[in-house]
């Protein structure tokens, strides 16, 4: 499924737009740093999907509802699509059961934009945990609106 998503050239590719990717990036930071809903280990915002490896501190459905709610309102407003579903209804979550599986998933997320041909190295994608901007708190306040 990820290969199909990574190679998609049609359909909604809103997250490919820097402003939309940035608002998702900011919402992930806000959920961790301001709402204290999870601890982020890795994440990447791709053109049409997001990977997020976290340790949840509240129930996962609450995390999903908050992230989708914040980002869909802001993205639809920015895109002029108010009232249009931004995210798919379904999500895929998975309980990580071992240190080996955790490392495999962590590596997969970091390398996803490289495998998809978006960047040559993970740190080149600004909207991921591999970027230098992740350690900055810049932009977090934008999620409060």
Salient structural properties:
4 helices, two-stranded antiparallel ribbon, 145 residues, Alpha-Beta Plaits, globular, single chain, alpha+beta
Strand order of the largest sheet: 1-2
What name does CATH use for the topology? Answer: Alpha-Beta Plaits
For the record, the count of structural domains works out to: 1
Oligomer: single chain
Number of strands: 2
Largest sheet: 2 strands, antiparallel
Distance between the termini: 33 Å
Rg estimate, integer Å: 15 Å
Report the uncertain regions: 137-145
Helix content: 40-55%
CATH superfamily: Transposase IS200-like
In CATH terms, what is the architecture?
Answer: 2-Layer Sandwich
Structure description:
- This protein has one domain: Alpha-Beta Plaits.
- A hairpin with a 4-residue loop joins strand 1 and strand 2.
- A two-stranded antiparallel ribbon has the order 1-2.
- Helix 2 (18-33) runs antiparallel to helix 3.
- Mean pLDDT is 85; it is low at 137-145.
- The protein is globular.
- The protein is built from four helices and two strands.
- With 145 residues, it is of the alpha+beta class.
């Amino acid at each position: 499924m990820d290969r199909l998503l990574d190679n998609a050239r049609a359909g909604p590719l809103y997250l490919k737009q820097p402003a939309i990717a940035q608002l998702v990036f900011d919402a992930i930071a806000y959920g961790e740093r301001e709402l204290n809903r999870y601890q982020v280990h890795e994440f990447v915002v791709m053109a049409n999907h997001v990977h997020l490896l976290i340790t949840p501190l509240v129930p996962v459905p609450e995390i999903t509802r908050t992230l989708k709610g914040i980002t869909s309102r802001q993205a639809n407003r920015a895109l002029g699509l108010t009232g249009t579903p931004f995210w798919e209804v379904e999500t895929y979550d998975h309980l990580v059961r071992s240190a080996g599986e955790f490392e495999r998933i962590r590596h997969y997320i970091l390398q996803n934009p490289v495998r998809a041909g978006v960047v040559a190295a993970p740190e080149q994608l600004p909207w991921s945990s591999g970027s230098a901007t992740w350690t900055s708190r810049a932009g977090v306040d934008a999620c409060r609106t």
